[in-house]
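INPUT
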Amino acid sequence: MSDNKEFQPVTESTAPKTRQVNPYGPNPADYLSNVENFQLIDSTLREGEQFANAFFDTEKKIEIAKALDAFGVDYIELTSPVASEQSRRDCEAICKLGLKSKILTHIRCHMDDAKVAVETGVDGVDVVIGTSKFLRQYSHGKDMNYIAKSAVEVIEFVKSKGIEIRFSSEDSFRSDLVDLLNIYKTVSQIGVNRVGIADTVGCANPRQVYELIRTLKSVVSCDIECHFHNDTGCAIPNAYCALEAGARLIDTCVLGIGERNGIVPLGGLMARMIVAAPEYVKSKYKLHKLRDLEVLVAEAVEVNIPFNNPITGFSAFTHKAGIHAKAILANPSTYEILNPHDFGMKRYIHFANRLTGWNAIKTRVDQLNLNLTDQQCKDVTQKIKKLGDIRQLTVDDVDSIIKDFHAEVSTPQLQPKRDNDDIQDEISEEPATKKSHQ
Amino acid sequence: MSDNKEFQPVTESTAPKTRQVNPYGPNPADYLSNVENFQLIDSTLREGEQFANAFFDTEKKIEIAKALDAFGVDYIELTSPVASEQSRRDCEAICKLGLKSKILTHIRCHMDDAKVAVETGVDGVDVVIGTSKFLRQYSHGKDMNYIAKSAVEVIEFVKSKGIEIRFSSEDSFRSDLVDLLNIYKTVSQIGVNRVGIADTVGCANPRQVYELIRTLKSVVSCDIECHFHNDTGCAIPNAYCALEAGARLIDTCVLGIGERNGIVPLGGLMARMIVAAPEYVKSKYKLHKLRDLEVLVAEAVEVNIPFNNPITGFSAFTHKAGIHAKAILANPSTYEILNPHDFGMKRYIHFANRLTGWNAIKTRVDQLNLNLTDQQCKDVTQKIKKLGDIRQLTVDDVDSIIKDFHAEVSTPQLQPKRDNDDIQDEISEEPATKKSHQ
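OUTPUT
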């Protein structure tokens, strides 16, 4: 302890009790933040159709659209009506359902596509064109002047039909910034409803997103929509940082299904947003319907819900380590930022393992309606940990150990058998209740 | 087009050809960035043991430790030797393997634990104590003075044994900032090797992380380690932003397994980091071993690799939409920020579906060694899309359609059968090669 004189006593600092700010809420410095005022464009029926396993027939599309509407998404985006004949008919059918969610379809920035789209009955059309040098060279081969001219033509046509119109670049984070700002300024001036930023390859990182959206926000007067792929695991926080910077709408898919490993998952984004804007999220979206919505889509595309999915992953509310279980039992907020009840889920204390602690075991003892002192709970916990060292335990294993231990401590031990003695009298101290069952 | 005069011609801006900066690399403004100089502490054998399904026997722990070492993680963190008798023996056994990765164990900030830990043969000890008001109230019940005193005692004891020592708070993002900085300054001054920031409940967002690490960096002179839970889907980008701000070490688990839905997944972080620091990542970590490592752990804890896992999810390199397939065939970078070959993986163009395009089909035609003109490829694509509208397609379905079409266009059509005519001569134009097989 030779360095002891360098130790500085630490004094508790106490925050004033009157401060009621949500520490996970919008940062007051982000004066353009839409964290508490965002909208969802669910693209399970467009981007999601591009998922490797996806094939939705008309009936399934309608079922998914109704479930998204019941959850409360603001918009539902559908595959382009020019993708195939059935895609067009499905688009028309979903428009006729009379859902509360607005219906969009997603087309190339081309008059041929726009003319078909406006006839389907959609509330809005999302147009997209690649602006990165990669896409200009290897996809459509057009220059920025051509892109701007096509955009203006399509936007004015769709607007003339009284239909909402969004213009998005593709692969925005690998596009030239000046090119991007130029075209967004142009389309904003002619009255586009939304401009879209798309991280088509999933390369963007959160602070990069924040900077681009903040810059774009100073150039356009319309809403900003964002579309983030998840190749490098950043889709959800990129969406969050975009909202912080002033974007208003986020594209999601149920379970994030889409091209490659997909985009922002609806459930994961809800996990992020309920922490930042609990009242807004809980009042606007039917969070209890999330699990059924995910099961519906998972079954339709034949995947399992990932074990580590936010909210609905099988262990998302399971607490295991002894030290965690102790605190959770005292106050769930200790180790939970999400309340499982907000999503119609339950928390679970995993006590059948060698990392268990006596607080978790004591709770189990209580659940079993048994009476053990704290010291006895500690003793039986040691027995459980010992077996847990040898093999994986089940709840039944733990319950058996607890019940055996309880029987042992509440029943007087048999004395070592004395020669020629009758031991019957020596177990007479058994509780009356137990006797009455014999 | 009445607003046409408002349209501003867009001119191409061309970046100087000499600029060779990686646009996804470290931001030059982050002068403390460790994006190109980070280290990994893999905690699959500690945090991962807290995953609901985890039970690793000695043999499995050793197998995982060897695989982590072969992958090249800098540190391997093990469950506390006081968690159970077998945990202590396993810790000793892994220390004796002579791995290149340094071995750590993770204990409570308590001399009883520290005394056991230093006897196991580990290279370093990670101590942790809850500093949030939640944990101080509901877990250990100690105040900040007590925490600081215990920390100093444990740190000096472990250092006296010539063993690396890390001090971490728990639930750092819900701890009082002044309390945190005070205790980190204290432990830094007495020569702790690393301080740890832990988002124990998964509440932090990326810009918040950046700010806290930047602030902490100005207070301590030692390395900063970060531990991020994934409850709100932000673990990977939080780790990235921490490195941007000057943190040096990130805790990972294979597939992210851990309490609840886990922490930063090793593979997902590799996806993020290879984009930002390709040379560093490729020279330091054996990325080709990632898939086998994930399969090993997935089987051990009886989970499936999530369908949407970065890099190893089954569709992570599958391209489906016609517009994507076209560009990918011309240049994979168009729709890929990750190169599958870096991870020993392959890309796959999904052409057997109604969203397919003629470029993808033309490639398939070439693969089948058939000769069709571009127009013929477009025609057969329409046939494929038509069947894809009715049901899910397999590769065999598409191949059959292509082969039938090819046979049709390269074989003269049979004329409607004329009465009493022998048609045998009319198909005599069949290729000689085919005839020779008859």
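end of record. Residues 1-19, 415-438 of chain B have pLDDT under 50 and may be disordered.
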